[in-house]
Amino acid sequence: MEHFIQFENVGKTYISGEVKVKALEHVNFTIEKGEICVIVGPSGAGKTTLLNILGGMDKLSEGKIFLEGTEISAFSKRELTAYRRHDVGFVFQFYNLIQNLNALENVELASQICKNPLDASEVMERVGLGERKKNFPSQLSGGEQQRVAIARALAKNPKLLLCDEPTGALDYVTGKQILKLLQDTARQTKMTVIIITHNSALTAMADRVIKVKNGTVVEETRNETPIPVEEISW
Amino acid sequence: MIYKNTIRQIRGSLGRFLAIFAIVALGVGFFAGLRVSEEAFRKTGEEYFEELKLYDFRLVSTLGLTEQDVTEILKLSEVEHAAGSVSSDVIIRDLDGSNGVLHTHSVISGINCLDVKAGRLPAAADECVLDARKYSEDKIGGYLELSSENSEETFSRFKYDKYKVVGIVNSPYYANFERGSSSLGAVAGFAYLTPEGYTVDYYTEIFLRLKQRHTLYSEEEKAYSEACEPVLEERLSECAANRYEELKEELKKELLSSLPPATEESLGQGMPEVTIPDGMLPEPSVYVLGRSTNVGYVGLENDSGIVSGISKVFPVFFFIVAALVCVTTMTRMVEEQRVQNGTLKALGYSDLAIAGQYLFYSGSASFSGCVAGFFVGSRYLPMVIWEIYHIMYTIERPIVYLLDFKLFAFCTILFLIAALGATWFAAAGDLREAAAELIRPKAPQPGKRVFLERIDVIWKHLKFLHKVSIRNIFLFKKRMFMMIVGVGGCTALLLTGFGIRDSIQPIVDYQYNEIHVYDLAVSFLEPQSPEAQERFLANHATDIGNYSFAHTETMELMTNGSSDSVLLVAAKELGPTLIRLQNGSESYDWPKKDEVILDYRLARANDISIGDVVEFRDSEFHTLTLKVVGIFDNYIRDYAYICEETYETQLETELEINTAYMNLSEGTDATEAVSKLLGDDAVASVDATEDQIEMIGNMLSSLDYVILIVLVCAGALAFIVIYNLTNISIRERIREIATIKVLGFYEGETAAYVFRENLILTLISSLAGLPMGVALHRYVMAQIKIKSMYFGHRILPMSYVWAPVITFLFAVLVDIFMYFSLKKINMTESLKSID
User: Fold this and answer.
1) Which of B284, B595, B692, B793 could cross-link to B629 by cystine, CB 3.0-4.6 Å?
2) Is position B278 within any domain?
3) Contacts of B835 in chain A (CB under 8 A)
């Protein structure tokens, strides 16, 4: 059966001179379309590396990765760029907005280059920033900035939404709001959302949980009853 | 340990280190090189003049001087060496049938020694050596023939009517290429004979050298010369007076012997008184002529001055740019290492220790730049500039290689202050923050709306990514400023370079197609009477279109202290088909009695305006006093025009026609016409403007080297500035660039995103540089004072196009270069969380 995302014996080794660091080893898992998947593990486990490779930002050393049957691990540089452009939306821990563009423009930056974008203004409304379109990132709070980043990713109308510690720089309440937004979006648009965190409490909101430790997957579970974010506390 | 860090830093960021090194090297190289050039010129000249023992004074008496007089002069305490010399101008017969005029001199020992290029010095009375500038080796073995056109008087001075050429030489008396003119016509060159080659029993002049030797062109040299002059004048006057008495006695005896024999009675009444008729033995005039009357000597002084003029401007640019490069580079570096610095602070290292790393970095880069620049610049720049000036002098030696360590110290200190000052300025700001602050990432500069945004009309229609670029350009003010100075400076330099060529190249065209429009200038051997003129015209009727006869003579324009050689033309009006005397669009009428029209260069060099009264002096020391009624545009050599009446009245002599200006009639072949003219017995020489054009054109082509230097200089400047800025810009925005890569921007798009700003900024800076360039060009042209040439300050329209276009090309080049480093930006590395 064809899975939406398939990791087959994926490994990643960093070589720096004489030093070899095995960031990932024998990673195997699958994710289905429309799932919210949470990847947990302690710091340095290899979660970010995993996400980066899935997002086309880095190349693996061993194994294969498939997205909807296409082997993305075999993509050339240009194909990877196209992949990132049209099929992937990325949300980082530190927002990474362009300082010199206002909120709306930051979103437009992404929507202007993809095949099938959503209207930037509408997406901004959807994330609750209708009033803040003309503000520069320096004029927005952390939570607002992260919402802009999410809007940016959503406007691309991607196949996947990858989030690397999206609430890492936010307080409890704001963080929850962000996660709710992500959860709602996934449910409403049937988009596949993958969230990396080291906070194991968040696994409750996911459809699938992947536990990563020491560069390999130690557990992969399917959660039949994901809980809405509002009801989780930690 | 902290210094181990610094060393590793240098190795790790070699590009940055080299940028500082390069800009400092360029600045110091040019500054030192140009400064040293002036000194090198002087030293080279000095060694040459001292080796060949150039005279200090030339003593002339209109009655001639004797060996006795030489002895008297030698008795003076300040005189080291003196020798009498015979000189005479003479017309010689050239192989091609034309006649030329040479200055001839007797070879003297110990002063004005000759530099033999081929062959040897003359030994026998019938031998001679020729001017190496005019004659080549193959003349050796041939003969120098005196033309039959010479007057009896001239002939009588020479023992032979032909002399065997035994060598070709250079003379320090003729260091320059100028040979001047004489009453016999334009002088082609010089020749030296043995004293026995002449028949005269007196000297036409005495050359002497003084005891004290001073640095060439120095104040001491001039002061010493001035102090000795009155002493020499006094002694010379005595000698002349004695000789006058002697000659008077001789003449009286001669006259007595032609009288009828004395009778007893008349004798008884005492010796008969003999009076010498008026004018038979004029009273002597004496002249004490120092080195400042020698064209070659003065010329070299002037030329080394030009170089120093230019040296004042170029290095200032580099200095400013060097300071800016240091500031931006070090600021960037300090910022990048924010966290590290905070950590060091937290560990307890002092501010000075931390700043010390950066001071060491920029200090070592600048210092090595100073060293490299100084040595390379001191060696090669003077060499190149000498190559250019070399053509005008017969000083055949390579330029002296000078290392001025005082200059080195000066440059080094200057540039080190700039570099270290800039570094301190960059570091101090950051270091003032608390350690904790430093460890946190710096808040990025907030985005700002740009003025252009308010102009909705334009802003709405701009492409999205263009808006980003425009915002970015105005946000980073330091960068904008540096681009304008650096890139604008590059364009300014380029414009100056092209402008120099634009001003210099066409002068030949202007001179011979707009001012001296005649085709030929014919010189006659002897003054042409009206009948002779008729005959001449008849002989060449078919060739000559319109014409005018004139008297031309080289005269000295007397101004405080020094003199300028001018060709004085006295004639009835010369019409616009022959000569056009204009100032801009205003044409001058032919000067009237006691009036003169002279050229712009003369006027400017001697501070003369219309209405001033000036004095001209001829080779026999008669003077003309004239009022200036016009100053005309002129580029090559110096000319002054007066009417016949002026000449005749003031000099109390008939105007002797010795020149004819003419245009060839249509269809006449120039070469044929010229040789037919040369075949005419009355004609001494023919100057075809075509030949002039060619000769000067060759000379000016060396000036192309100057332009090349400027262009290379500008290119280096642009490259360094743009490279530096782009490098910094990329590093500063690495997160941003990585983000858009993640967003899926293709490589080309990413490059465009980064470089678009660069190119727009380059364009703006370049255009700003144009007015800078115009000013710079004007200044440089004012400094280029080559005697006998005036360049003006024209810049052709195309140059205004080329300068920014080439600047832009340099920018594109850098961007191509940097494209490869953009590709290398690793997304994951750049976006690493501060975990």
Assistant:
1) B595
2) no
3) 43
**Whether the model pTM is above 0.95:** no
The pLDDT value given to residue B95: 60
Residue A75 touches partner B, C-beta closer than 8 Å: no
B620/B670 same-domain check: yes
Query: Which tens digits make up the pLDDT trace of B240-299?
Result: 999 888 888 888 888 777 766 665 555 555 555 667 676 677 778 788 888 887 878 877
Per-residue pLDDT band for B445 (boundaries 50, 70, 90) equals: low
Q: What percentage of chain A's residues is helix, strand, coil (to nearest 5)?
A: 35, 30, 35
CA dihedral angle for residue A47, residue A50, residue A55, residue A57, rounded to 10 degrees: 100
Q: Which amino acid is at A168?
A: G
pLDDT greater at residue B212 or residue B500: B212
Q: Both B341 and B357 in a single domain? A: yes
Give the DSSP letter of residue B633. Answer: -
**pLDDT band at B834, cuts 50/70/90?**
very low
- Which residues of chain A from 3 to 32 reach within 8 Å of chain B, CB to CB? none
Q: Is the pLDDT of residue B393 over 60?
A: yes
* Nearest C-alpha in B relative to A138: B446
**Measured between beta carbons, which residues in chain B are less than 8 angstroms from residue A156?**
743-744
pLDDT tens, residue by residue, B223-240: 899 899 889 989 999 999
Cα angle: B692, vertex B695, B700; to 5 degrees? 115
Q: DSSP of B500-544, one letter per residue?
A: HHHHHTTHHHHIIIIIB--SEEEEESSPPPHHHHHHHHHHTTTTE
Q: Which residue of A has its CA nearest to B823?
A: A77
Chain B residue with minimal CA distance to A43? Answer: B835
For residues B107 and B81, state if they share a domain: yes
Give me the domains of chain A, ranges plus CATH numbers. 33-60+75-231 (3.40.50.300)
Task: Say whether both B715 and B630 belong to one domain.
Answer: no
> Does A65 score more than 70 pLDDT?
yes
Which of the residues B450, B462, B742 would you substitute to probe the A interface, choosing the one with the greatest number of A C-beta atoms within 10 Å? B742
Q: Which of B331-340, B578-587, B593-602 has the lowest mean pLDDT?
A: B331-340
Nearest to B444 among A88, A92, A99 (CB): A99
Q: Tell me the chain A residues in contact with residue B831 when contact means C-beta distances shorter than 8 Å.
A: 92, 96
- pLDDT beyond 90 at B407: no
Q: Which residues contact B190 (CB under 8 A, 6 or more apart)?
A: B102, B103, B104, B105, B130, B131, B171, B174, B179
From B550, B555, B554, select the one nearest B527 (Cα to Cα). Answer: B550
Distance of CA B249 to the CA centre of its chain: 53
Residues B358 and B504 in one domain: no
Identify whether residues B707 and B624 lie together within a single domain.
Answer: no
Q: What is the DSSP letter of B630?
A: E
Across the interface, whether the CB atoms of B735 and A90 are under 8 A apart is answered no
What is the domain range of residue B139?
57-260+286-295
Adjacent-strand bridge partners of B480: none
pLDDT (average), residues B173-177:
85
When pLDDT is averaged across residues A100-122 and rounded to a whole number, the result is 87
Work out how many domains chain B is built from and give that number: 4
Q: Provide the token pair at B42.
A: 């002087």
Helix, strand, or coil (residue B187): strand
Residues B3-33: tens digit of each pLDDT: 777 777 777 778 788 888 988 888 888 888 8
Provide the pLDDT for residue B195. Answer: 92
Residues 6+ apart with CB under 8 A from B676: B540, B543
Contact B444 A168 (CB under 8 A): no
Last residue of a domain, one of B681, B701, B716: B681
In a shared domain, residues B667 and B543: yes
* Phi, psi at A82, each rounded to 5°: -60, -40
B66 and B202, same domain (yes or no):
yes
In eight-state DSSP terms, residue B436 is H
